[in-house]
Every structure is written in structure tokens, then in C-alpha cells.
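Hi C.,

You asked whether I'd gotten around to modeling the 124-residue construct. I have! Everything is below, sequence then structure, no commentary in between.
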Amino acid sequence: MLIKRKSRSIAAILAFSGTLTVSGLHKFYLGQPVWGILYVLLSWTPIPKVASAIEGVWYLAQDEEAFDRNFNQGKSAVKFSQQTSNQVESIAKALRELDTLRQDGLISEYEFEQKRRQLLDQIS
């Protein structure tokens, strides 16, 4: 299962937007729903708006490595892209091998299509 990488700039934008609109959207985005609900429940006070502004500045003040440690389980963008690239590469190789089997008549067109769909579903 692929885990979506959290973006520091999107988190900051959502935090700053919480100073004007509904506070806590950045918490939901970062996978902290309990804090998000707390921000929404306290939205009638200025506390979540001030906290959102402070957190927006904090997200921007962090470098990418620190943000990744805090919100992306320590995985950097380079590691994510390498993992995805390796996965796509291995699936492409498997598809080529599968096509060779189909062309040699060792599997039917139906079997080829079934397996091709299974392989492609692993990417998304």
C-alpha cells in the first residue's frame, strides 16, 4: 500500500487558512484527526486561529528533513521517489515477461489481461 507523502507547503497553507476560515484542516491533512476535531470544537474561541498561525510559521521554518521526520515517518521525498521508481521498474519488467509468454503462446490473451490488470493495480 502506498502512503501519500505530506507536503510542507500544503500543510502551511492549510494552517494559515485556518486563521481566516475553519481551523484544524492542516491537522486532518497531517493525519492528526483528534487534534483537528479539537480545533473545530474550539473554533468559537481565538485559540485555534492563533495556534494555526504559529504552526504555519513552524512548518515553514522547518527544513524538509525535519518536516519529514515529524510528519512523513522519517521518509524523505528522495526515498519515496526511489521506492516508487523501483516498484514501477519491477512491474514493467514483469509486464514485458508476461507479454513474451503471451507471444510464445504459453498463456492465453485472457490470462495475460488478468495478470496485467493485477500488476497495474499494484502501482495505484
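If it helps when you're writing up: Residues 77-103 form the longest helix (27 residues).

Thanks,
B.
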